[in-house]
TrEMBL record:
<dbReference type="GO" id="GO:0004857">
    <property type="term" value="F:enzyme inhibitor activity"/>
</dbReference>
<dbReference type="InterPro" id="IPR006501">
    <property type="entry name" value="Pectinesterase_inhib_dom"/>
</dbReference>
<protein>
    <recommendedName>
        <fullName>Pectinesterase inhibitor domain-containing protein</fullName>
    </recommendedName>
</protein>
<dbReference type="InterPro" id="IPR051955">
    <property type="entry name" value="PME_Inhibitor"/>
</dbReference>
<feature type="domain" description="Pectinesterase inhibitor">
    <location>
        <begin position="34"/>
        <end position="158"/>
    </location>
</feature>
<dbReference type="InterPro" id="IPR035513">
    <property type="entry name" value="Invertase/methylesterase_inhib"/>
</dbReference>
<dbReference type="GO" id="GO:0009827">
    <property type="term" value="P:plant-type cell wall modification"/>
</dbReference>
<feature type="signal peptide">
    <location>
        <begin position="1"/>
        <end position="28"/>
    </location>
</feature>
<keyword id="KW-0732">Signal</keyword>
<feature type="region of interest" description="Disordered">
    <location>
        <begin position="179"/>
        <end position="201"/>
    </location>
</feature>
<dbReference type="Pfam" id="PF04043">
    <property type="entry name" value="PMEI"/>
</dbReference>
<dbReference type="GO" id="GO:0009505">
    <property type="term" value="C:plant-type cell wall"/>
</dbReference>
Length: 201
């Protein structure tokens, strides 16, 4: 005897409602792709701002783990370039032992700006190696240790400032992508960070 299947007893309007509700839920998940990608990053809201800027709804089809990581790296390159200038500016006029600390901090940020700021396709394998090295060296991406308890400005290089956030987000997203080098056809459109440039006064 063959297997028999019982026909659904749900009335047609109810079946239609269930199908429609399911499609709406799927659409909601699709619309929240940036939020979903950022949930387990160190700074979810900041991460979502970066990815939402890089991938508006019209570019949803371009969003993958690779392109998300690339967008975060380009945002990090943008921020490190600005932060490097600020950190170097902070070394001016320092005459005590704090100068050495600030100079070291500025040099680390300048190195990051150079390594992340490629104008071509993003090489995620090299970026991953860079983050692995800096994390092994416990680089915190802020210059707080150089302030010795002094009042600190709210800027790119203060604790939990933009530099620290963007580097944490970029590292988390890059680690999700297999180490395969530069992705073929990688985007070269720069991703801008969501926060405004700091004052140099």
């Amino acid at each position: 005897m063959g297997t028999s299947y019982r026909r659904s007893t749900l009335p047609p309007p109810l079946i239609l409602f269930i199908i429609l509700a399911a499609s709406l839920v799927a659409g909601a998940d699709d619309d929240n792709y940036a939020k979903a990608a950022c949930t387990d990053t160190p700074y979810p809201d900041y991460c979502e701002a970066i990815l939402s800027t890089a991938f508006p709804p019209s570019d949803r089809s371009k969003f993958t783990a690779d392109t998300a990581a690339e967008a975060a790296v380009r945002a990090a390159a943008n921020i490190t370039a600005r932060a490097a200038t600020l950190a170097r500016h902070e070394t001016e006029g320092i005459k005590d032992g704090t100068w050495w600390c600030m100079d070291t901090c500025a040099t680390e940020i300048e190195d990051a700006a150079e390594r992340l700021g490629s104008k071509g396709a993003v090489n995620l394998a090299r970026v991953r190696s860079f983050f692995a090295r800096t994390e092994a060296d416990s680089i915190m991406w802020n210059c707080d240790d150089c302030q010795r308890g002094k009042d600190k400005k709210t800027d790119l290089i203060s604790k939990d400032g933009e530099l620290e956030m963007v580097m944490g987000v970029a590292s988390a997203l890059v680690k999700r992508v297999p180490s395969t080098g530069t992705r073929k056809g990688a985007t070269t459109v720069p991703a801008t960070a969501p926060a405004p440039a700091p004052s140099m006064d």
